Amino acid sequence: MSRTPFFRNALPAFIWRWRFVLFVLCVVVFCYGYFRPTPAPEFFKDSEKIEHAIAFLGLGLCTALVTRSWRRAWLPWLLLILAAPLAEGLQHILQPATREFSLGDVAGNLTGVLLAAIVWHYARRWITCTNNSICTTSHTPGGDPARH
């Protein structure tokens, strides 16, 4: 059974029609924030780690939305996991005078990918089960067949 109908019915039409544009805007904002010459202001000690997690959380959710129909659903997540350390290294290469490679930032990036995967997993389950015509035992909490 195709997964497209429940996403189309559950998401606002604006987001569904413009999901690719939303993804491109997310990538542009991500690249600006991540690769700009000066780091973001630090609100408290190591607040930049939270900023890295939020950046990859947003990028992960936008990526999941735009690649939701790929046959290999794991591939976008693998690419995001690979991008976490690569983006940090590229940041240092592009801005060597002001930015440096940090394992703490890589951990923040990977945390954001993990959070995005968790949110996406539960959002898909919720969206699937709110549309009773598509809800299946594998997506029903508790596996109760009477809830179909």
Give a quick set of tags describing it.
globular, 148 residues, 66% helix, mainly alpha
- Which strand-content bin applies to the residues? under 5%
- In the predicted model, the low-confidence regions spanning at least 5 consecutive residues are 131-148
Number of domains: 1
Q: What do the pLDDT scores average to? A: 79
Specify Rg, calculated over alpha carbons.
18 Å
What is the helix/strand order?
HHHHHH
Shape: globular
Largest sheet: none
Name the structural class: mainly alpha
User: Number of DSSP strands?
Assistant: 0
Instruction: Please report the number of helical segments.
Output: 6
Task: Briefly characterize the structure.
This protein has 148 residues and is mainly α. Helices cover 66% and strands 0% of the residues.
Give an account of the 3D structure.
The chain is built from 6 helices and no strands. The longest helix has 28 residues, at 103-130. It is globular, with a radius of gyration of 18 Å. It has 148 residues and is mainly α. It has one domain. 20% of the residues are buried. The chain has helices spanning 4-10, 13-17, 19-35, 47-66, 75-94, 103-130. Helix 3 (19-35) runs antiparallel to helix 4 (47-66), helix 4 crosses helix 5 and helix 4 crosses helix 6 (103-130).
